[in-house]
């Protein structure tokens, strides 16, 4: 439906009927015999200004039309703000006070004394795996949980890949070989389990080594850790004890 059957109507005639003039440049495109391009209709040749005005009105209508749902975007921004508002120092006062803004040294003294970890800080670990790994204490506890689950090598591999990207260029080749020998070689002392697709990509990248040789394997392991290990950690008794404030640093 909507298509032109060229066995019933001439294709040039169909072009003249269905395609309006695009610009006044077509007026100068004269062909042999006084004919104009078949994409230009006879009515457009007589009233080019009217056709241009219709194009302008159509473009104005498209500009005014909203191409995405503002309500959905606003809801996502509002939910993000509600989640992080108690961690925004401009809105909620920090406890203890920020030592870089105030003259109160309680933050440093609390770190030395090893007080209980604030519940607000532990609750933030459940926002995402990035929030958990960004917190030194959360990262330490997550490593212990992975060791109990016999999957600590995944985080070790991800850390090694991140270190690789920060090394000087002269050390990249040696670091790539060290990561391969430790985690991915046939007789690796700390083997990681990745799928065949990621392994084939990594083997191909080993022929031309650079900082991104292990990106495919790292992405696969990060997805597994995020969808499996991280969700199990949030359901574990270890996290629940920290969340209840019964565990000290």
From TrEMBL:
Annotated Gene3D superfamilies: Regulator of G-protein Signalling 4, domain 2 (1.10.167.10), Transducin (heterotrimeric G protein), gamma chain (4.10.260.10)
Domain RGS: 128-243
The keyword Membrane appears for this protein: no
Iron in keyword set: no
Coiled coil: none
Gene Ontology BP, a term: negative regulation of signal transduction
GO molecular function: GTPase activator activity
Domain of life: Eukaryota
Keywords of the record: Signal transduction inhibitor
GO cellular component, one term: cytoplasm
InterPro entries linked to this entry: G-protein_gamma-like_dom, GGL_sf, RGS, RGS6/7/9/11, RGS_Egl-10, RGS_sf, RGS_subdomain_2
Protein name: RGS domain-containing protein
Organism: Penaeus vannamei (Whiteleg shrimp)
Species classification: Eukaryota, Metazoa, Ecdysozoa, Arthropoda, Crustacea
């Amino acid at each position: 439906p909507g298509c032109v059957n060229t066995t019933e109507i001439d294709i040039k005639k169909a072009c003249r009927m269905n395609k309006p003039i695009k610009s006044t440049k077509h007026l100068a495109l004269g062909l042999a015999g006084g004919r104009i391009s078949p994409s230009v209709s006879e009515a457009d040749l007589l009233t080019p200004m009217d056709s241009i005005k219709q194009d302008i009105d159509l473009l104005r209508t498209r500009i005014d039309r909203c191409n995405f749902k503002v309500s959905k975007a606003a809801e996502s921004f509002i939910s993000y703000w509600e989640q992080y508002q108690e961690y925004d120092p401009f809105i909620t006062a920090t406890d203890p006070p920020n030592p870089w803004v105030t003259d109160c040294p309680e933050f440093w003294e609390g770190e030395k004394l090893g007080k209980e970890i604030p519940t607000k800080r532990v609750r933030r670990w459940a926002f995402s795996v990035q929030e958990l790994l960004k917190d030194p204490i959360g990262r330490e506890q997550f490593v212990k949980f992975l060791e109990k689950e016999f999957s600590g090598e995944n985080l070790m591999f991800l850390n090694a890949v991140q270190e690789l990207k920060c090394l000087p260029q002269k050390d990249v080749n040696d670091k790539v070989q060290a990561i391969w020998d430790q985690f991915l070689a046939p007789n690796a002392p700390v083997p990681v389990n990745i799928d065949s697709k990621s392994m084939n990509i990594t083997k191909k990248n080993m022929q031309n080594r650079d900082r991104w040789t292990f990106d495919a394997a790292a992405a696969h392991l990060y997805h597994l850790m995020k969808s499996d290990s991280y969700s199990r950690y949030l359901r574990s008794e270890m996290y629940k004890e920290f969340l209840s404030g019964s565990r000290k640093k």
